């Protein structure tokens, strides 16, 4: 048994008890959990595979719109809508990766912005599909087992399950062959190829997994908001928020994205009244400080120190 | 016959707008050429220039073009200081660090502007805002013409500096081969600060020139200008100044023609599509030299 599983189960138990302790602070907790999940999902591609994407809002939007349009126009139950969104997200990620994975480093990042912006313009202009620039309302949802999906408490448990599922995926991945392949590709594609790994295939799998998980969070987000606007949910700033949350916490670490989410959403809540709508200021300041002083992130830097010390001790004895 | 006239009209508008895009793109490409830094804050520098003009106009009633006298040197100094304080620390860091730090800088600038000036769009009204110059059947807006003229002067000056002064020679040497430049005694760290200063001064100038034409909003438009600057530079091939100018003109024309002959809903998408195609099919840029890749 891995100690990360123990930490995760401890956190999930705490998370289940949280609504009893702080029933008034559910919305913040939902935001926190969604960002923890999105950042962890982003990190599969951005951290473990080393491909920094600034286009993940597209997947949030995809998941959100499947649920919202499915519920409001076609009467599709949200769980089926989410299932379709997962498939659609994986397909989108596959095509997107096929198209752009021959670009490396900053060029890849630029191409993700361009594709995400084009998708946003499509969402705004194709009103027959998405309700256009005015957005979509979710008026009613079915009630499985008498559960009100609009209730904050239900939203909270859905978000908790989503965050736990992504972290669980990453913990499992960090120890299996796929996780090692991802890290090999991140460190050096040529060496990875020499040891029989196909970098494009591995990166594609990472992108599909990352995109599908992000879309799952997007579906839950849509139920939480019950109103979707393409300006917000497809916007570059959401992609930036997701990526920066993971990078501030520490790329390629299991807990980094969660710690990043705690820090970013937490400080956003503390400074809510001071900064009002200028809340992205916190992201800007934090990312500058982290890149300048803790280049591996808040979790990554101490973790590296501990690992190096352990190696040094072993070498001495 | 009417079609021919409206085509020329659109073409000239596109070229004039494209001139300003070129001005923005040249700053970005110059910085990339010398420092290999992709500057995500470049669009926000443009917005900073816009607000500089708005501020001086509301305080002293200055014409935007008068503001240039203050904005350009100020932009240069701020850029140089930012480079010394922030970017120069990242020389040893992984390659995306400079991208992330400038992204952070963009968020900080945008949101500080939002806190200071509020979210509502602001602009400077000038007396000549709606006047036009007729050239045969084509009418050209005076503001656009002035913007084009300013762009022409600034780019010519930049060209003269780069090609006919000792400083320009050092800049080109640093872009070509950093180690070689250092070996012949060029202080490349100083050159980097100067180049980042020039880049910021160019962006600020573009902002000031654009303000009679557009509204300044603190957070949203910065990202749009950054994207446009990327499109321009990638069209031309990153690091190539002449090509960035051509890329800017091309983007202006593509946007205006696309908006008037196809559908204007996707005005911003045309540039992005071309950008993606160029990035995928010709990563060295439309006008870049083809380098055989192994």
UniProtKB/TrEMBL annotation, chain A:
Top-rank taxon: Bacteria
Keyword Cell membrane: yes
Chain ranges passing through the membrane: 5-22, 52-71, 77-97, 118-142, 154-173, 206-226, 232-249, 281-299
Pfam families: BPD_transp_2
Compartments reported by the entry: Cell inner membrane
Keywords: Cell membrane, Membrane, Transmembrane, Transmembrane helix
Membrane topology reported for the UniProt record: Multi-pass membrane protein
Protein name, entry field: Branched-chain amino acid ABC transporter permease
Organism: Modicisalibacter luteus
TrEMBL record, chain B:
CDD domains reported for this sequence: TM_PBP1_LivH_like (cd06582)
Transmembrane segments: 12-33, 45-62, 68-87, 99-118, 138-162, 193-214
InterPro entries, per database record: ABC_transp_permease, BCAA_transport_permease
Cell membrane recorded as keyword: yes
Membrane protein topology class: Multi-pass membrane protein
Localization in the cell: Cell inner membrane
Keywords (A to Z) from UniProt: Amino-acid transport, Cell membrane, Membrane, Transmembrane, Transmembrane helix, Transport
Keyword Ribonucleoprotein: no
UniProt family annotation: Belongs to the binding-protein-dependent transport system permease family. LivHM subfamily.
Database matches in PANTHER family: AMINO ACID ABC TRANSPORTER PERMEASE PROTEIN, BRANCHED-CHAIN AMINO ACID TRANSPORT SYSTEM PERMEASE PROTEIN LIVH
Protein name as annotated: Branched-chain amino acid ABC transporter permease
Organism: Modicisalibacter luteus
The organism's taxonomic lineage, starting at the top: Bacteria, Pseudomonadati, Pseudomonadota, Gammaproteobacteria, Oceanospirillales
